[in-house]
Amino acid sequence: MSADPSGLPLKGLGLPGGASLLRGLARLGVHSVGDLLLYLPRRYEDRRAITPVAELVGGSPATVRVRVVDVRVEKTWRRGVQRTIATLADESGVVEAIWYGRRFIERRLHPGGEIVASGRVKAIGWRAQLEAPEFSALEGGESVNAGRIVPIYRLTKGVTALSLRAAVRQLIDQFGAELTDPLPAGVRTRHELMPLAAALTEAHWPSEFEQRDAALRRLAFDELLAVQLSLVRRRRRRAKGAAPSIKVPQRDRAEIEEAIRSGLRREGASTPAPLWTSDQSAAIDAILTDLAAGEPMLRLLQGDVGTGKTAVALVAAAAAARAGLQCAMLAPTELLARQHAATAAKLFAPLGIRVDLLVGSASAAERRNVRAAAADGSIALLIGTHALFSEATQFASLGLVIVDEQHRFGVEERAQLTAKGEGEPHLLLMTATPIPRTIAQLLYADVASSELRELPAGRQPIRTAIRSSAELDRLWSFVVSEAGAGRGTFVVVPRIGDEDPGEEPSGETGGDALEAAGEAGVVEQAKRIAAAAPGLNVGVVHGRQSTVERSGVMDGFTRGEVDIVVGTTVVEVGVDVPRASVMVIMSADRFGLATLHQLRGRVGRGGSEGWCVLVSDSEDEVARARLEAIESTRDGFLLAERDVELRGEGDVLGTDQSGLPPLRVAALSRAEDRALAVVARAEAEGLLDSIGRPLPASRPLIESYLRGWPTAVLLSREG
């Protein structure tokens, strides 16, 4: 065992709060000393000023130093709920404090004892009252919960503010001096960074807010350096790999592009094959250049909704096939995989390129036959879901891997697929959720990127409007008129988990409960719509349905047998129904900008004008700002930047797809942390050799990060 205590389990350390605290911390992902020391406050309260009772003002937080005069417990009108009322006094006056449903309060307050209490003041007529204040007995004239800058943590069941503060204080006192500081003194001096023990102390118990800021800067630097080391190592190791050179003669390229563009012409259209947009042409040029270079391609194709990124990817797949190599295309859902397979089979038929599908719902015999054809090289393009990862799925000559909606897959999953090739297959990542440029420049600097912004010819702009629930009758009348013209409508209902998380998550709601709640919400909404739009056929799709059931509803919608599809965000990704003209998003304020933009892109694909209606009664300023942003622009890249401004980077960092851990301290939505990431990148470049191995001087630092401090990173121990 390492002498560094950061990896020690919390169990057995005798932390205040006991087993209940440990269970609660486990729900928060906190298991070790390091985990808890890096479980930082979400905010801080300045409780250094003691307010005399006579000067308390309603509506404001305050801290008082008082004597307990009396404690009593009373029944309330709510059955089974009691309230504890304490009379508190100082030299200036008397104030009452009140707690509901917390019988333990009575046991902790003793008449005659002196406490420090902090809470919000409520004005009751001419009197002031403290609402459920935190308090602690004065010991030696000092309290860890008042008289100082106090940390406020995110809590869960079993974890109280008092027990958590006491546990953190115990760990700092017990282990702070023993923690190994991974940063060499020279690095700390060069960038004016605090020593680790001091940074942890000031991050949890700041002496001044300036010291807190300096502490968080040090911890953020550690985190960003760990991330940048992983990125630099990955880039250098991948650059040394050998990949097949896929060179496509100009004649073959012209044939491939013509077949795909002609196949994209709408059924029955007499117009010539649509031309590539300038963005599509540039992306195809870049991809084919990468494929021919002999070094493994790693390119991110960012296609704004409806800009034709799938067509570009299929050009690459056909190029690999013409070179005698196979391509695997990974999709996040069976619905999307089936859609891609149907599209590719149609477009590749004139080229003589075999396309097949591998999904979990296929019969054992079907999966066996497809895998045999992939193994002997008969299939040139195999499209599938997680079934592609199976050890039973092998390829004769895998040269290209395409990952659609790449943020749905982790780096380890992608590695499982690329490992099925000879050498290092080329990798093309696709996403319709643009990554903000300010973040991409830092965390995706090692990935070549192509952007599709232009809409192909024939795509109509989508009108976006915000409406209240009071306007639903008019909305359903509009939907009825669209159905009369042969056009269809999506209605999206949020699931329980679609809203922004609260400040104190319970961690008690399981996946089954969420799915059940989602189903109930969809079914209930479908009944209301059917009543408001009589005569229309309303179908439902949700996560508890089988793939066959969902596909049946969507096929009926495509054929015009279903007028309205009501569902959860199952329609967010990849669903392409040309007759769909209206997208109605209920409680739209509960969705992020990226999801709203994705949903909007599901309509207006058949040449008719599209509508996206955002239904919301929210008065929350941030939520309204999101809706107004989506209403004002169709530029997904601009919206991604705006989403970072409004909500922080969140999942847009792509920690899952990049194989990087989520940032716990640094926030790349802040300019100062982006600047710090640049500094960390420069340091990382000098810590690894040309193939990504740690240089001798950097081994202690990297070994510390390998042990999980300050955050788990994908740095191999090899070399």
Tell me about this structure.
With 719 residues, the chain is α/β, with parallel strands linked by helices. The protein folds into five domains: 1-42 and 153-179; 47-148, Nucleic acid-binding proteins (OB fold (Dihydrolipoamide Acetyltransferase, E2P), Beta Barrel); 182-203 and 211-240 and 666-719, no CATH class; 275-452, P-loop containing nucleotide triphosphate hydrolases (Rossmann fold), CATH 3.40.50; 462-633, Rossmann fold (3-Layer(aba) Sandwich), CATH 3.40.50.300. 38% of the residues lie in helices and 18% in strands. The protein has 23 helices and 20 strands. The strands form four sheets. Strands 10-11-9-12-13-8-14 form a seven-stranded parallel beta sheet, sandwiched between helices. A six-stranded parallel beta sheet has the order 15-20-19-16-18-17, sandwiched between helices. Strands 2-3-4-6-5 form a five-stranded mixed β-barrel. Strand 17 (538-541), helix 17 and strand 18 (564-567) form a beta-alpha-beta unit. Helix 8 (250-263) packs across helix 10 and helix 9 (278-292) runs parallel beside helix 10. It is globular, with a radius of gyration of 30 Å.
List the helices and strands and how they pair.
Blueprint: H1 18-27, H2 33-37, E1 43-46, E2 61-75, E3 82-90, E4 93-100, H3 104-108, E5 114-124, E6 127-137, E7 149-152, H4 161-175, H5 185-190, H6 196-204, H7 209-239, H8 250-263, H9 278-292, E8 298-303, H10 309-322, E9 326-330, H11 334-348, E10 355-358, H12 364-375, E11 381-384, E12 398-403, H13 411-418, E13 426-431, H14 437-443, E14 448-452, E15 462-467, H15 472-484, E16 488-492, H16 511-532, E17 538-541, H17 547-559, E18 564-567, E19 580-585, H18 593-600, E20 610-615, H19 621-632, H20 636-647, H21 655-658, H22 671-685, H23 699-706
Parallel strand pairs: 4-6, 8-13, 8-14, 9-11, 9-12, 10-11, 12-13, 15-20, 16-18, 16-19, 17-18, 19-20
Antiparallel strand pairs: 1-7, 2-3, 2-5, 3-4, 5-6
Helix pairs in contact: 6-7, 7-22, 8-10, 9-10, 19-20
